[in-house]
Specification:
single chain, alpha+beta, Bacterial Protein-export protein SecB, 3 helices, 42% strand
C-alpha cells in the first residue's frame, strides 16, 4: 500500500453514493431451499474492477467532477468446495453483484492516487451494501444467511 498516494486521494475525495449496478442470483434447480439438510461450504470473492472513470457534471455551483469506481462481489453455497473438482451441480446458490461508488473530487488528485484509493478504500464503502444485499437475498430465497466476513484489502497483482 502506497500511503502517500492514498493520503492524497483521501484528502481529495468525498463519498457521494454507492449504487448497485448489476445483480445476478442463481439457485440450482436441484436445490430445495429450506428443505435440504445437507451442510454447505461457502465461497467468496470480492475486489475492485480495473475500470474507473471521472464524470464531469454541471451544477448550479459550477462544474463538479465525480470519480466512479467499480467493485464486484460474489458469494455462493457449494456442496463441494474443492476448486479442482467443483461442478455446476455443486453450486447450490450464488449471488454476484457489481457496485459503483461515486466520490466528489474536491482537490487535484493524480490518476495513480485514484487507482490506489480504488484498490484500498472503495471496498470499505461498498461492504455494508454488499452485506445487506446478501442477507436480504438469502431471506427472500428461504435459505440460511450466508455470513459475510470482514472486508480485507486485496493484495497487489
Amino acid at each position: 500500500m502506497n500511503q502517500e498516494l492514498l493520503s492524497q486521494a483521501q484528502k481529495a475525495l468525498n463519498i457521494e453514493k454507492v449504487l448497485l449496478l448489476n445483480l445476478n442470483i442463481k439457485t440450482n434447480i436441484n436445490y430445495d431451499p429450506g428443505l435440504d439438510t445437507e451442510p454447505f461450504g461457502v465461497q467468496f470473492r470480492a475486489g475492485p474492477m480495473s475500470e474507473r472513470k471521472v464524470i464531469e457534471l454541471e451544477t448550479d455551483q459550477g462544474v463538479m467532477h465525480v470519480s466512479r469506481f467499480y467493485f464486484e462481489c460474489g458469494a455462493r453455497l457449494v456442496s463441494n468446495d474443492s476448486p479442482e473438482t467443483l461442478t455446476d451441480d455443486d453450486v447450490k446458490y450464488e449471488i454476484i453483484a457489481t457496485f459503483a461508488a461515486d466520490y466528489v473530487i474536491t482537490d487535484k488528485c493524480d490518476p495513480e492516487c485514484l487507482d490506489e484509493f480504488g484498490r484500498v478504500n472503495v471496498g470499505y464503502h461498498v461492504w455494508p451494501y454488499w452485506r445487506e444485499l446478501v442477507q436480504s437475498s438469502c431471506a427472500k430465497a428461504g435459505i440460511s444467511n450466508i455470513p459475510i466476513p470482514m472486508y480485507k484489502v486485496p493484495k497487489r497483482a
